[in-house]
Design brief:
Layout (H helix, E strand, L loop, with lengths): L23 H12 L18 E10 L5 E12 L5 E8 L4 H17 L6 E7 L7 H15 L8 E5 L5 H15 L20 H20 L7 E5 L3 H12 L3 E7 L2 E4 L6 H11 L9 E3 L11 E4 L18 E3 L8 H9 L3 E3 L1 H4 L2 H15 L5 H26 L3 H20 L4
Parallel strand pairs: 3-4, 3-5, 6-7, 6-10, 10-11, 11-12
Antiparallel strand pairs: 1-2, 2-4, 7-8, 8-9
Bound molecules: nicotinamide-adenine-dinucleotide.
Length: 433
């Protein structure tokens, strides 16, 4: 069947899509440009990837506990839905911008296609510092935001999940608010819910388990033993914390951990359980007594075999990429490495397992959660972990082979696999009307 060719670039991008090339959206555009030569005939659809399908900006007004009214800006971006409903997390952070959410939504499209779960890509966020809010203020922000984006989310439309500073409780409030508005309990509207509310066993740990699984695969190909390897982790929340624990359980030494509050270092290996307990009590790794404290920037000089960025975007840059000691970087965070840094690491022979495959474990188990909610039939944790590991290994293998075949980085290889899937769906569906 022949689909008429789409004119590839008749119109210039609207101004809000021409984000400066130093920001996350600009980085995504560069990544798409790098992959276009490998898309063959499908390249004629590549413009669709450079324009998010739908973007909603909402005002989120709430009563603060002191009786005044505060307004926050919220976003939900559906980047692409050619392969299925939108899927991606919601971030609460004081620096969230539309451009950032656009890029995060786009990376979700790539990630979901890379592991072949039947979703498009979406992401949401609120420009708010949740640490400044009381629990009841946080609940009001969450509920009002959910109600505002309720126009475009839904179990078969777009399914949010946790991201930076959002957790199971936030997902429970989102599920409840959406359910109240539609008049029925709709568990499938979000994933990452508490297990008592239709959440999945294994979801909380899924992203970290995925990071560990692809880390083991990549290390094996480098001839690097995990048992005895040294690991540095940036970010000690859901992703960084679980990744650190799993690597430590496999015999690795977690020599450095950095979070928003500080950096701790111990050459003999940090006690991950004790550090976790310290963070639960104090909100940060700062002040952990069984370790040395390092200045934040010294983190990048720490001698280690494996580096796991698991905090925010644009952490490994042209400024620090030359200093990294690691042989292997596993991107737990989304977008932690800038394209310039990627090139520097590549030239130095450092293997980078990109975010779009490395942290796909979370959305994979989110998919399992969504399937379980629809069928009201819940699986055991062993079944979930087995399926997760099988999908992650299979996806990593496929990407490794494409990288070898085309002599490209694992990032470009993942984009090749994913963009082909997305654009093939686009091509088969054709253009409406
Ligand atoms: P989280 O809120 O649980 O933890 C974030 C961590 O990053 C915290 O330890 C925080 O202190 C640290 N951090 C924040 N700012 C920092 C800074 N300037 N320097 C150093 N550390 C800093 O968030 P999370 O869910 O673990 O997400 C972390 C990253 O992983 C994000 O990029 C997110 O998009 C990505 N991710 C998360 C999931 C998931 O399932 N949670 C899935 C895929 C990708």
């Amino acid at each position: 069947m022949h689909t008429p060719a789409a004119p590839s670039s008749v119109h210039a991008l609207p101004s809000y899509l021409q984000a400066d090339h130093l920001g996350p959206w600009g980085i995504f555009l560069q990544q798409v440009d790098r992959v276009t030569p490998y898309l063959g005939d499908l390249a004629r659809w590549v413009e669709t990837l450079k324009r998010p399908k739908r973007m909603l900006i909402v005002d989120v007004p709430i009563h603060l506990d002191n009786g005044t009214v505060a307004h926050f800006e919220g976003y939900r971006v559906q980047h692409n839905t050619s392969r299925g409903p939108g899927k991606g997390g919601v971030r609460f952070h004081q620096d969230v911008t539309l451009s950032e959410v656009m890029a995060l939504a786009a990376w979700m499209s790539i990630k979901n296609a890379a592991v072949n779960v039947p979703y498009g890509g979406a992401k949401g966020g609120i420009r708010v510092d949740p640490r400044q809010l009381s629990a009841s203020e946080l609940e009001r922000v969450t509920r009002r935001y959910t109600s505002e984006i309720g126009l475009i989310i839904g179990p078969t439309k777009d399914i949010p999940a946790p991201d930076v500073n959002t957790n199971e409780q936030v997902m429970a409030w989102m599920m409840d608010t959406y359910s109240m508005n539609v008049g029925e309990t709709a568990t499938g509207v979000v994933t990452g819910k508490p297990v008592d509310l239709g959440g999945s066993l294994g979801r909380r740990e899924a992203t970290g388990r995925g990071v560990f699984t692809v880390g083991v695969e990549a290390a094996r190909r480098l001839g690097l033993e995990i048992n005895g390897a040294t690991v540095a982790v940036q970010g000690f929340g859901n992703v960084g914390g679980v990744s650190a624990r799993l690597f430590a359980e496999a015999g690795a030494r977690i020599v450095a951990v950095q979070d928003h509050g500080g950096t701790v270092y111990r050459a003999a290996g940090l006690d991950v359980a004790a550090l976790t307990a310290h963070v639960a009590r104090h909100g940060s790794v700062a002040g952990f007594e069984h370790a040395e404290t390092l200045a934040q920037d010294r983190f990048w000089d720490v001698p280690c075999d494996i580096l796991i960025p698991a905090a925010l975007e644009q952490q490994i840059t042209a400024v620090n990429a030359g200093r990294l000691q690691a042989r292997l970087v596993i991107e737990g965070a989304n977008g932690p490495t800038t394209p310039e840094a990627d090139d520097i690491l590549n030239d130095r022979g450092v293997l980078v397992v990109p975010d779009v495959i490395a942290n796909a474990g979370g959305v994979t188990v989110s998919y399992f959660e969504w399937v379980q909610d629809f069928s009201s039939f819940f699986w055991s944790e062993d079944e979930i972990n087995d399926r997760l590991i099988r999908i992650m290994r299979g996806a990593f293998d496929a990407v490794w082979q494409i990288a070898a075949e085309h002599h490209v980085s694992l990032r470009t290889a993942t984009f090749i696999v994913a963009c082909r899937r997305i654009l093939r769906a686009r091509d088969l569906r054709g253009l409406y009307p």
